[in-house]
Amino acid sequence: MRSAERSLWWLAAAGAATSIILGVVALAWPDETLYVGAAIFGVWLLVHGFINLVQAVTATREDGASRALTAVIGILFVVAGVIALRNLVVSLIAIATLIGIAWLIGGITGLVNAFTGPYDGGARVVVALLGVITILGGLVVLLWPGPSLATIVWLTGIWLVVMGFMQLFLVFRHRPSS
User: Fold this and answer.
1) How far apart are CA 111 and CA 117, in angstroms?
2) Whether pTM exceeds 0.90
3) How far is CA 95 from CA 33, 50, 137, 140, in A?
4) CB neighbours of residue 78 within 10 Å
5) Which residue in 37, 107, 126, 156 could disulfide with 135, CB within 3.0 to 4.6 Å?
6) In which domain, by residue range, is 81 found?
């Protein structure tokens, strides 16, 4: 039992240290971090494109139209992945656009929920305010994608470092006895 407890402690300590290291890397090399993220996005598109193509070819229970649609989606993902990997700036713009659209839609949804959902009084105001802030954030990312992505990298780096140190504090506070 003690061995498992020590192993879990070391695993938690390693997770905290990893957060700190990744945060420092993001803060030290924000541009490179963006390009690595863009490359990962391109690879993700390729992988999911190939998965869709394999599903379209190997599916046995789906109708022809469904298989054709899956193949078309697969081809689009592969093409998008190749474009993203050939031009990482395009990939970064696509990522920023997706973030901006997601925040915009999320903010609109939050604003609608504030007035049509089960909220009353102070909760309604907080949900509405959160919706407005999210809409504004989405618009900022859509209008200024470059600076927005750089800010996101910086905030993520800071968050990882702070979170890692907090995790380390908790890990050392609950260190198993020898």
Assistant:
1) 10
2) no
3) 13, 20, 15, 14
4) 18
5) 107
6) 10-173
Residue 2 within a domain: no
Is 34 part of a structural domain of the chain?
yes
Flag whether 178 is in a domain.
no
> Each residue of 21-67: pLDDT tens digit?
999 999 999 989 988 988 988 899 999 999 999 988 987 776 788 88
The Cα 111–Cα 163 span in angstroms is 30
Six-digit token string for 157: 């780096």
162, amino acid identity: V
Q: Determine the distance from the C-alpha atom of residue 50 to the mean position of all C-alpha atoms in its chain, rounded to a whole number.
A: 21
Which tokens sit at 43? Answer: 């690879």
| Sequence letter at residue 116 | T
Phi, psi for residue 110 in degrees, rounded to 5: -60, -40
Q: What pLDDT does residue 67 have? A: 87
- Tokens at residue 94, please? 């696509």
- Which amino acid is residue 161, in one-letter code? V
Q: Contact at 8 Å (CB) between 37 and 175?
A: no
Structural domain total, the chain: 1
